[in-house]
Write a structure and sequence with these properties.
It contains 3 helices and 8 strands; from the N terminus they run αββαβαβββββ. It is an alpha+beta fold and about 160 residues long. It folds into 2 domains: about 80 residues, RimP-like superfamily, N-terminal (GMP Synthetase, Chain A, domain 3, 2-Layer Sandwich); about 60 residues, SH3 type barrels. It has a 5-stranded antiparallel sheet with strand order 7-6-5-4-8. It starts with a helix and ends with a strand.
Length: about 160
């Protein structure tokens, strides 16, 4: 399962990086979507996903990467060498916050729940809306289901061609 102390340490680092990246995001006109720390502790890879209205381009990612790199050099939350990657979350981006669902209303999504709802835990449908902490999905069969946000294990936009 992993070393609990190491997991706590990486979670603490992730929180510090998220705070630094989020404050920098506003200055660059982008939104911090997600942070991943992968690899090993001796040389981790820090993946930062940013977005903005209309999508981000390579220049946005480069500018944000340079700015964040300078901040990370000063604040030094990762004491070992690391690799920094900044990119867009992509067309099939994960939805992790209520805000993500609200801004994706009308889009096709795949949702996996922690516990079964109506004898299933995998749903594909269009986000019909967000009411409080419940996500309403219009299913392909014409039905609709409300999924409590806290029951969502994973959610991701589906690519539509």
């Amino acid at each position: 399962m992993g070393n609990p102390t190491l997991l706590f340490y990486m979670g603490d680092i992730k929180g510090k990086i998220a705070a630094l990246a989020d404050s920098l995001a506003g200055e660059h006109g982008v939104e911090l979507v997600d942070i991943e720390i992968a690899g090993n502790i001796r040389r981790p890879t820090l993946r930062i996903f940013i977005d903005k209205e209309g999508g981000v381009n390579l220049d946005d990612c480069e500018r944000f990467s340079r700015g964040l790199s300078a901040v990370l050099d000063v604040e030094d939350p990762i004491r070992s060498p690391y690799v920094l990657e900044v990119s867009s979350p992509g067309l099939d981006r994960p939805l992790k916050r209520l805000k993500d669902f609200e801004s994706s209303t009308g889009k096709l999504v795949r949702v996996i729940t922690r516990e079964s709802i109506g004898k299933q835990n995998f749903f594909v449908g269009r986000i019909a809306g967000v009411d409080g902490s419940k996500i309403a999905l219009a299913l392909k069969d014409g039905g609709e289901i409300e999924i409590p946000f806290e029951q969502i294990s994973r959610a991701r936009l589906e690519i539509e061609l």
